[in-house]
Structure of Transcriptional regulator:
Amino acid sequence: MSYAHLDAYSRLLRGAYESAASGRFWPESPRQLIRASWRRSFDAGIDPEGTSAPLVYDASLITDIRKNHPLQPLLPLMAKTLSGLAEETGHVMIVTDGDARVLWREGNHSIMRRADDIGLATGHQWTEHSVGTNGIGTALAVGRPVHVYSEEHLMRALHIWSCSAAPITDPDTGRIIGCVDVSGTSRSLHPATVALVAATAKLAETELALRMHQRDERLRRRYESLRSRPGILLSSTGRVISGDPAGGLGGRVTLAGTTFAPGQRMILRDGTVALLEPFSDGYLLRPAPAAMPSSLRLSFLGESTPTASLADIERPLSLRHAEILTLLALHRHGLTAEQLSFHLYGDAGNPVTIRAEIHRLRGQLGNAIAAKPYRLTCPVEADFLEIRRLLAGGDPARVAAAYGGPLLPRSESPEIRRERDELEAQVRACLLRRGSPDDLWAYAQTCNGRDDYEILERLAELPPTDLRSAAARTRLLP
């Protein structure tokens, strides 16, 4: 891009920036990448008049944090590629972790002193939620290399800077573990620098992949020397290395939240049970002996707190978690996050919210909930499902004894409201048609039966000496 083009773009940015900072309509917008980043930054409450990135790591902790980071061995490789450029042209090279916290910095001493003023230094955090639009935070937010030029930054103090940054993904875990960035004054850093930065990130990923394959090969050789222990070989992060030729595990087993005691049972994605055992630097999955898994018991009828019991441990549930379990119990084949979101919230639902709730729910119930799609992996005993079964059998006495009230009466989920109304109507019809006075009286103790006119009229017809008749007549009084 020529200086004339840069000048023209700077004038457009200044107009757009002043409009955005004052909350007015943007007559001329920056490119889509920056426009979207500005919106995220304003939504996060970033002040355009801020002056520095926050310090999140104390200097005394940095050495240990660097030592334990997977990019530590690759720093010489990245420095060899970029720090010469930084030193010669007055730029600074930055390497962060996956949360945009600066761990390493090299480059021109003069420019690093200026970088100190804005917190472009070790221990400071550069997410969009911390400082708004910037090369590091925006690259991590969108998951690809970006160049942020001068007035494209949201904070005015950064307008003398430009930066090119690229995220680094760990091939072992599939997660972004860091970001490499070159920053300098706006005119000295050419937009084409982003290509070199992206190539450096790719070089780091290639080196990480090479080291991963070397670890896999060492683990595979140890495994093959012990033929007496057949099974599926996993890396320490759950990647399938050997023993699954059909690919039924999908290349990875989720180990998050698993306790790695010998003989630990795991529910696999196909619903089968396997034993997880530590093996060298990884794990072995072996078929588990046949055993009846614990049942999940759900008590969701009536006005009391919904509870779930698993392995004889009863857990109170929030309404949202109870709603999710209700839907999974009604759809045993499973539901995606999008389907769960629609059933719970309708068109206003957000699958991201559902995924977060499922993560918290699995913290309570562990492997009883599987993913892709979300489903229950163990036998389920639910009071509302039992009512369905009893209604099919046509025994009003058993229906009345088991029915504790409407299903999750506080739930506004469209799907649960339909199920609740249908159960209520069927229970009421069954009892009115064939229920004894005891059955009608049991229903009259539920929140909906308490003021049910037709039920109370039936009870009021009992002999005057029957206390249930007196109670019903009292409730019928206007």
About this structure: The chain has a mean pLDDT of 85.
